[in-house]
Amino acid sequence: MLEIKNLHVEVADRKILQGFNLKVGPGQVHAIMGPNGSGKSTLAYMLAGKPGYRITDGSVTFDGEDILELAPDERAAKGIFLAFQYPMEIPGVASMVFLRTALNAVRKRRGEPELSTPDFLRLVREKAKDLGIDQEMLKRAVNVGFSGGEKKRNEILQMSLLEPKLCVLDETDSGLDIDALKVVADGVNRLRSPSRSMIVITHYQRLLDYIVPDFVHVMAKGRIVRCGGPDLARELEERGYAAIEAEAA
Amino acid sequence: MNADIRPIRTAAEQALATAYEDTKSRLPGGPEIARLRDRAFSAFADSGLPTRRVEEWKYTDLRTLLREAAPLAGPPDAGAIARAKETVSLPVPNLRQITLVNGSFVPELSDLGDLEKKLTILPLARALAEKHPLAGMIGKLRPETHNATLALNTAFLNDGVLIEVGEGAVLERPIYLRHVFAGGTVAAAFARSLVVLGRAAAATLVESFEGPAEVAYQRNAVTELHVADRANLSFVRLQAEGESALHISSLLTEIAGGAELSFAALTLGAAVSRQNVSLHLAGEHTQINLAGATLLRGRQHADNTLVLDHAVPNCTSRVTFRSVLDDTSRGVVQGRIVVRPDAQKTDARMSLGSLLLAEGAEADQKPELEIFADDVQCAHGATSGALDEQLLFYLLARGIPRKQAEALLIQAFFGAALEQVRHEGLREALIDRAGKWLELRERAS
Ligand SMILES: Nc1ncnc2c1ncn2[C@@H]1O[C@H](COP(=O)(O)OP(=O)(O)OP(=O)(O)O)[C@@H](O)[C@H]1O
Ligand SMILES: [Mg+2]
Predict the structure, then answer these.
(1) Of the residues B8, B201, B256, B335, which has the fewest C-beta atoms closer than 10 A?
(2) How far apart are CA B308 and CA B314, in angstroms?
(3) Is A88 in CB contact (< 8 Å) with chain B?
(4) From ligand 2's centre to the CA of A88, what distance in Å?
(5) Which of A67, A75, A86, A88 to mutate to test the interface with B (most CBs of B within 10 A)?
């Protein structure tokens, strides 16, 4: 489904990803862990097509297609979704207008009809309820006045509405309290399916107790330095990154 | 007489002088009005059209922009009236529509039936001819400094409308004053209106300016507004002139104690426009809210020049102007707040913002505070910049196509001004009108 080969990415003339490789098959969940600054968010942004990232070498294909030339909205239409580490506040843009515009844009490009207003409202209400998002919150502008945790839930709400093929979650767990973590993880698990893949970026083993990954990768200095199963996350928790990096070096 | 101290006249100034000499004897009203016109014209003749050397006209050099003065429009014929009738108006139910075509009051396009108690609506030409007392209030409001375009309007004082809302009258039905230019040839339309709100009266007033895209007509419209003690006026203005037009308008206002004025303007039209808004806060505890949204494209130039004069203590004023500038358009907003020595406890805030959608667009924003009192709270700010790329990325990452994502952010930007219109139907009509501007932009690419 997703194949990243020998990827080198520069931001503001700094080499961030340096020979990054990853292959994600349909239905798989890959966790990526790694110290601060190792390039996890860079990877996530690069996949979503954020401007300012210079690809100096390597390739990224999604369903066999090179996506590096595609604009962010085209990538989203193909089914790539990034849940942001720091979701943006957009004053003046009503949450419901935003959700509806996004959903209809994506549906249109998939060749599906726009949803009627009542159908849309019903759908949002149902998904919001599953994620414990208050209807009142959705009356506000996008993420404006939302707490850190509320913003993260809102990302997952968008994800479940847009039904992407590849979900990239960048530290969706940070800022969530213990109960919220469970609610959000349940939301993510509901989306797991044999055709949908996920890349879950996190610092904490706890999230991976709920969203059990098929593979765990450790990133350091812009590359994957170790791969393993769910046990690797536990090992990291006990031994820390330094030990593992030292072994890999 | 010493010939060489006279300023050199431009062709336009010369044409205006000739037009004045030719028409003045045919204009309505008694000797007092004739004197008012003469004084105004001679003041205009002394100053001539304003150039960039006049501080208030720094960004809009009218002497250069007005190369030729168009002939006076004259009363509209049946064809013009028929065309004016077809011009789409604001689709808001229950507005009492008053229509001026090419500056002349047209009774057949005006709804004067079932006037509410204490509401008077009169054509200015008739009021002048009949020496109606309301007509005597014309020309009473004068800005502190000479304004050449206002003087010209006074010199050609002819028709327009007089509206009085008597003491305590609360009008449910908004009054909608439409200025329509109709006709295939270039002409100058002058109109003068007067609105008087009696004590504790309340009303909603809408004024719109429209005309054909292909005719380079010239508009000069002045509205004088008197708001008495504790009156409450909500005033909405739509400048949607044809894209070849020259639009000059002045709103002169005097507001008495405890009154409330909420003014919102949407500026979309004309090749060149200049909107003067001058507010004199003459009584304590008045509250003013001024909001404006300007959306320009192509080579349009729009200048909004505001003066708020806090002359007495304990008044509050808020100014929020937002300009969205595409292509090589230019948006000027000059906002001057004067706080006189007596005006203690003034609470005045002004926020100007411009969004530049293209490299070639230009924003000139000049907020100014002149404070002569010490116990006041005043603040102003001006920002200008392009769309926020980070926010755009967020919207794009959700599958929203670029133009549509931009439209959402642009709408949010000018929404800060238009959201302030209290009348729901009018607010929606204005937002809808601005939305059409965005649709055109989306389709253009
Ligand atoms: N726009 C930028 N300009 C300069 N340096 C950048 C930029 N964006 C990221 N970097 C640098 O790239 C490196 C990787 O950053 P990135 O955000 O990908 O790390 P991360 O693994 O997500 O870290 P964290 O765990 O703290 O979220 C860091 O050293 C960061 O300072
Ligand atoms: Mg990160």
Answers:
(1) B8
(2) 14
(3) yes
(4) 15
(5) A88
Terminal CA-CA length for chain B = 61
Check whether B5 has a pLDDT greater than 70. Answer: no
- A13 within ligand 1 shell (Cβ under 6 A): no
Q: How far is B240 from chain A (nearest CA, A)?
A: 24
Q: Record the tokens describing residue A188, joined without a space.
A: 């993510």
pLDDT single digits (tens) A120-153? 999 999 999 999 899 899 999 999 999 888 999 9
d(CA B420, CA B417): 6
pTM of the model: 0.92
- According to DSSP, the residues that pair with A22 across neighbouring strands are A4
Minimum CA distance residue for ligand 1 atom 26: A36
For chain A, give percent helix, strand, coil, nearest 5.
Answer: 40, 30, 30
pLDDT of residue B56: 92
**Distances in whole angstroms, Cα of residue A230 to Cα of each of A43, A212, B227:** 21, 7, 74
Pair of tokens at residue B279: 């507010």
Give the number of whichever ligand sits closest to the CA of residue A221. Answer: 1
Closest residue in A to B390 (Cα) is: A88
Residue B4's pLDDT is 45
> How do residues B413-436 score in pLDDT, each as one tens digit?
999 999 999 999 999 999 999 999
Helix or strand run (H / E) with residue B81: helix B78-86
CB contact under 8 A, A71 and B412: no
Please say whether the beta carbons of B274 and B246 come within 8 A.
Answer: no
Q: Which of A190, A244, A195 is nearest to A217 (CA)?
A: A244
pLDDT at site A246: 78
Q: What is the mean pLDDT of residues A200-216?
A: 93
Q: Are A236 and A206 in contact (CB under 8 A)?
A: no
Are residues B184 and B215 in contact, defined by beta-carbon separation less than 8 angstroms? Answer: yes
Specify the pLDDT at position B3.
Answer: 44
Give residue B144's pLDDT: 82
Instruction: Grade residue A249 by pLDDT with cuts at 50, 70 and 90.
Output: low
Beta strands (DSSP E) in A79-140 are 80-83, 90-94
Q: Using an 8 Å CB-CB cutoff, list chain B residues near A81.
A: 397
Query: What six digits make up the tokens of B137?
Result: 């209030």
Strand duo B96-101 + B104-105: pairing: antiparallel
A161 neighbourhood in chain B, CB within 8 Å:
none
DSSP state, residue A196: B
ipTM of the complex, rounded to two decimals: 0.96
Rounded to the nearest 10 degrees, the angle between the axes of helix A95-109 and helix A117-130 is 110
Mean pLDDT to the nearest integer, A80-92: 95
